[in-house]
Amino acid sequence: MPELKGERQKYSAYCRDHLQEFGYELCDEASQLIRGWVGRVFLVLILITSVATYRYAIQTNNPDAPLTLFAYALPVIIVVLFPLVINFYSGIEKFSPVIVDTVSITSLLSFAFICYLLFTNVDTQVEREVLSNRLAGQVNFILLIVIALSYHATYQFTIVRNLLLTVFFSALIFAVDKEFFAASVLQLLQGFLLGSVVSWIFYDGVRARFYSRSTDASTRQHLVKQLSKLVYSHQLEMIKNGEELEATMPLKEGKAIVSVFDVQRSAEIKHEKTQEFFLKVFESFLEICMRGYEHNPLRSRAFRLKETGDGFISTVGYPFLPTEARSLADSAVSTALTMLDAFNKEVEKFNYLRPIKAAIGLAYNSIQGTFQSAGIRSYDLYGEAIIQAAKYEELRKRPELWDLFSKHAAKMGIEYFHLLIVQEVVYNSLSSSYKDLFVEIDLTDPRVFTGEEDMCYDTEARYVYFYITE
User: Fold this and answer.
1) Phi, psi of 243 (to 5 degrees)
2) pTM as predicted
3) Is the same domain home to 258 and 190?
4) What is the per-residue pLDDT across 176-228, written as a single tens digit (0 to 9) for each?
5) Claim to verify: residue 207 and residue 257 sit in the same structural domain
């Protein structure tokens, strides 16, 4: 019981805090009531009641018997016309609770009118008592029905409404026949109490459904928001449409240019906001990668593979198709240079005492997508292109090559520099404007390579190309 009470207090408070939304929910409920099976049952009951009353009036030789067939015309017209009006003006749905109240009031008026027709033509006291007893049972029922169906956001309003309807109905009966009113007092009291109990149960049920639906929707919205941090929007859409996670990204082997970014001498950066600096850098890189992202076909400027502390690995051409019509090599070099520009901007904001420079290696080869076999199924890539790109970026660590890079930078009047090293295949695929940026290194030159170095990462390579910029 305490748990049930606590739960009721929870959704009661939620409905109070979201009173406007709860009001909209009640409008929808009221609209469904009139248009749905309840409205149709109401019409059937009215029909049966009218026919039964008509037959009774005929049996008692009541001259106003035909009028009893039309006594409930007003509430019937409202219920019948409401669905038709919605087809032309949907805005009327927001007045559904008022329309339900109108049906309730007109139903009470209709019943009172029938009573008036029947009592007006009663001659003897015995007949009056018989009629009173016959109608008294209906008093309880009709009052219970009109009180039970209430669609107002606060139950305090519903209680006041119920009291007013009971007083109004009592006044109508009193005006029709005082003796009938005296015989119906207990029925009126029962109708009010039972109707109020039913209306509370009904109201509480609507609150519970509203709370459940709203919190479920909020939970789903929160889950989608958090899931969108783990997967791309096209994956999220495909999962919503019933696809398995493993079907949302390419898995077949393909070809791509892999870009491996790394900060030179990152271990020497001593600053309390070093981690924040790298996060800003990688955020700007992700923004570059996601430029032109679209679902069908799946494409973007680049694909972020992973962040590695002070490094960033991305691919051009797989699993996302490139967004530009130019060659894959041109797109990869253009993206790499854009990343270096973005890196410079973040370095400037970082305002570090010493220069911070980066290196990027580019390599073209086979690559393939995969999902982890168990646990959290994150998407990953593997293949020779990743290994080779990492190796090309690491060429800067070879002393003889670093001396060559430094001497070339010195000729340009640059002391500290960014370095872009590309594979021969990538260079040969570049347009002339991009080729002119790079300097060639002959791998057969004994001053550069003695032959003892491990070149197994790219045994067919004969040249390496580099580009230096501030």
Assistant:
1) -75, 150
2) 0.60
3) no
4) 888 888 888 888 898 888 888 888 888 887 877 777 777 666 666 777 778 77
5) no
